[in-house]
Structure formats: C-alpha cells, structure tokens
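ligand=pyridoxal-5'-phosphate
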Amino acid sequence: MYSERTLCLKSSAIREILKITSKPGMISFAGGLPCAALFPLEEIAASIHNVLSKFRSSALQYSVTEGIPGLREKIAGIIDPDGTRIGQQNILITHGSQQGLDLISKLFIDAGTPVLTENPTYLGALQPFRFFQAKIESIRCDDRGLCIDSLKDKMRHIRPSLMYLMPNFQNPTGSTLSSERRIELVEIVQDQNFFVIEDDPYGDLAFDGAKHPSLLRLGGTHNFIYLSTFSKTIAPGFRVAFVAASEEIIGKLAVIKQGTDLQTNTFGQYVIREYLESGNYFNHVNRIREAYKNRRDRMISAIKKHFPGQVTWNCPSGGMFLWIKLPEWAEAEELLPRCLDRGVAFVPGREFFPDGSGKNTMRLNFSCASPADIDEGIKRIGEALK
Ligand SMILES: Cc1ncc(COP(=O)(O)O)c(C=O)c1O
C-alpha cells in the first residue's frame, strides 16, 4: 500500500529524545538548538516592522522559487567576498539546510548509488540518503576531520557519485577539517570527478572568528555544492537557508523544489534580507560566538570536576557540540535511561555512525542550556557515570 521506499522509514533518534526532553525540569544537552535567550528579538522586531512598512503586501505574496533577489545577492557576497566564483545565479534559498539535503538527494541518488560520509555523520543527512536508498559508505575521522588515507582506501573499491561532509565544527564531534586535508581532498575530488556536499551550518560560529576557506572556494562549483543556514546564527524558526552550486545544479534543484513547496516562505526571506542589510548581523554573530565559547568552557570545567578519569572529551574551537568518549567497554545507550531518571539528557553517539560503531560515545550540546544548568546537568551525568 505504501511505497517501497517508506519501508525503511525510521524517526531520527534525536527527534525521539527531544520529545522526552521537553518535560519540565529536564536539562537537555541533547538537541542541536541555538540558545533562544540570545535570539536578537528587538532587532528582528525592527526588521519585521521595516519589511511591512517598506514592502507591504509584496512581502506576503508568492515569490520566485530560487529566492528573493536581494537575498541571493547578499548571500553570494557573504560566502564569496571577492565575487569571483559565486553570484546570485549560484544561490538557491531553501527551507532550512535540511531541505537542501533532501533536494540534493532527489537529484543525485538512485537505489544503490554510492554515497560517502564521515563516520560519524549528521543523522539528518542520513535520513534522505537512506530514503532514496543510497549505499552509504563511511570514512574514518579523527580530531582533524576526515582521514584522507581512509578515503583513499575506500576509493580503491568504490567509485562514489556523491560525498557528504561537514568541514567546520562537525555535528556530532565538533571537529574541523585541517587546511592540509582540505587541499588533499579537493585534489582527490577533482581527479576522480565526483560531487561533494559541503554542509556548513556552524562555520560562522568559530570562537576566534578565524575560518578555513570553504571547499567550494578552494575547488569551485564544478564538484562542490555548499550548504549553509541562518538557523544557527539568527533563528531556526525562519527556516531560511541556502545552497550554493553551479548554475546548472541550481537550475535542476529549483525545478525539484517547485514540486516540493514552490518556494521558501516569502516573509521569512524578506525579514532575513532586511536583518542582513541592517548591519546588525555580524555584531550579533560575535555575541553568540562569545556566549557559546563561555558555555563550552563552563561545560569542560564541570566535566573535569565530575566525570570519572577514564572518560575523555575534545575542546572544539567553535560550533555547539562536545564529543565524549567513555571507556571502550561502556555503552552510552545504557547510560541514557539512568541520566533521564536524573533529569538530564544527551544523545548516545552510535546513531551517528553509519557503520554501527561508536557505542561508547556521546554528544553533548553546550549552546542551549544556561550556565547554571550546564553545571548541574554535568554533575548529574557524572553521578550516573559513577
Ligand atoms: C550539520 C547540519 N546540517 C543541517 C542542519 C539543518 O539545519 P536547518 O535548520 O537549516 O534545516 C543541521 C541542524 O542541526 C545540522 O547540524
């Protein structure tokens, strides 16, 4: 009765945990939520007011599938300030980066199409890849991101059509692909000529403000498709994000998008464009960088105090996640119910590993809980661990 594709449908483990974490009193390190208390409410209110007074009903009308003109230009200017590689014709506005992943999957994936991912990777990308029945092959990662030797090994047996990775402050591990590896990766991709989805929702949340060049800038639009979003830097409720790619790919994705939702919501696009033009955006991003850096430090101090000695963690230089490794024999999934009983939640790492490994890992989000809740939540996990 239902399509064969839907036989593999499974709700994301994170979405399931999030249902539990909405209970009152629960401290959650589970979601990938930005801190709502830092949303720039007053500035957004001013942008909304300006949009309605300047553009009146056009801000509420249908608009073009690719996205409203000024916004595409503005984004092109942000991701390619020299204006040499990316223009507005290379940008498609999407309903969240999640929609970008879905549209790209529709464009590239048939049943059995080989898709390379990091191991671990973002669950929300695995969902559309699996839905379109990709053959997912995962590549080992370490604290400098994707391991190039593991990629080369894999490519001895597989000719990929598509690869997916997050070079900056990866979800779930928080790791960043080093400069040397970026260059090596671009060379391999260009040599073997396949497409790479570079998913970059966290790149602007670098705590020292320094950003590696994107793979798109290094390698160009022939092989690289770049995704980013205003979900983590402004607010996810707008669902305004974008794909940057060759004109040919943008044209095809736009046709697929027509059949999906016609266009991204007009009003949200107007408000985001107005906010970008107000000049407040970069100050706001600086404010959240600083707040998140403080929360990361707070979480690490609490971990040092409360976690037993065999547990290890990283110190990401941006983004929203800490990655915890328990001893080899331990299982984070067994720890979770004990933590939920104590009123604290996290995401066990195994779900993020396409190859099913990683049972002793866990992801902790540090952007969303208040500093006091960070102390208390880590103390509770520490008690459960002991
Ligand atoms: C790596 C990654 N890609 C994409 C998304 C989806 O973002 P959006 O809110 O723009 O759909 C997220 C959200 O957590 C993410 O972590």
